[in-house]
Design goal:
The chain is mostly helical and 179 residues long. It has helices spanning 2-13, 27-37, 45-65, 70-75, 81-96, 98-120, 125-143, 149-158, 162-175; strands at residues 19-20, 23-24. β1 (19-20) and β2 (23-24) form a beta hairpin. The model is unreliable at 1-24 (pLDDT under 50).
Length: 179
């Protein structure tokens, strides 16, 4: 349900993949170009780029802490809404680009490792995740304060899993690795 809602919002409010400025392109190129065009003049880029992983880790942590059916635990003690979200994200990365997916695997495994560590630590996974998510959203807003404001932050949240992939694509371009 959440995926259908997010997909509908993306199609309604954002440029559709493959049709950026009327130029046909691959879905990967369209998403990355859309993200790049909306992030060319950040007010505080360092703060913004620290906020992107905080939002991802916080969101996954909130999902990780939600109650799951007993059947999930019977399959694996690590299967929950957060790990399912990460698995779906990885599958999506493999669909759009093999090289981006391979490059994103360490990040995704790192996010999962943080969740496992937090879940087993004396800290409250939900509280830490909500704190990271709040700090991340505040960082997104401050980073774009004079450039789009709250509407831009909402768009960033809709595309939160494209942000890390876009950052990786910038590195790939510098290293001349094809996307």
């Amino acid at each position: 349900m959440l995926c259908i809602l997010a997909g509908g919002l993306l199609n309604r409010y954002l440029i559709k993949p493959g049709h950026l400025a009327g130029i046909p392109m691959s879905e990967t190129s369209a998403w990355l170009k859309k993200y790049e065009l909306s992030h060319t003049d950040l007010r505080y880029p360092t703060l913004y780029w620290a906020a992107v992983p905080a939002v991802v880790v916080g969101t996954v942590g909130v999902l990780w802490s939600l109650p799951v059916p007993d059947e999930f635990y019977e399959i694996s003690p690590l299967l929950n809404w957060g790990s399912a979200f990460l698995m779906v994200s990885v599958v999506y990365y493999f669909i759009i680009s093999l090289s981006l997916a391979i490059g994103m695997l360490p990040f995704m495994l790192g996010v999962a490792a943080v969740q496992v560590w937090l879940d087993e630590s004396p800290f409250s996974l939900l509280r830490v995740s909500l704190g990271l998510l709040s700090a991340g959203v505040l960082g997104l807003w401050l980073g774009r304060r004079q450039n789009g404001g709250l509407a831009a932050v909402v768009a960033d949240l809709q595309m939160m899993m494209i942000g890390p992939a876009w950052l990786l694509s910038v590195l790939y371009k510098r290293l001349r690795i094809p996307i």
